[in-house]
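The data layer described in this paper is built around a simple, fixed record for each protein. Such a record has a labelled line for the sequence and another for the backbone structure tokens. For reference, a complete record is included directly beneath this paragraph.
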Amino acid sequence: MKKLLFAAACTAVLSSPVLACTAPGKAPEIPDPATAVTAQMVKSNNEVKEYVRAQEEYIACSGLGSREKRQALESLQEYADRFNQAVRAFKLASN
């Protein structure tokens, strides 16, 4: 019985969301819209979306102060804006 309770307690502690709060890796590269092909842009779009989602989750659970959170969100927004500009430039070049 004690082993069962210990196993349940360990499972609860190890599956805690706090322990799962890890910073995502490096931001994906944004392809050059002048030389990229559609497959590259689609792949990059998926990678950027995943990175932004992971970064938002990390910021929410990281315990950063309000100033650090604001800076991290501003940085993430700038990255997303750069990608969106690249997408717009790619669409213009493709037409």
About this structure: Residues 22-94 form one domain.
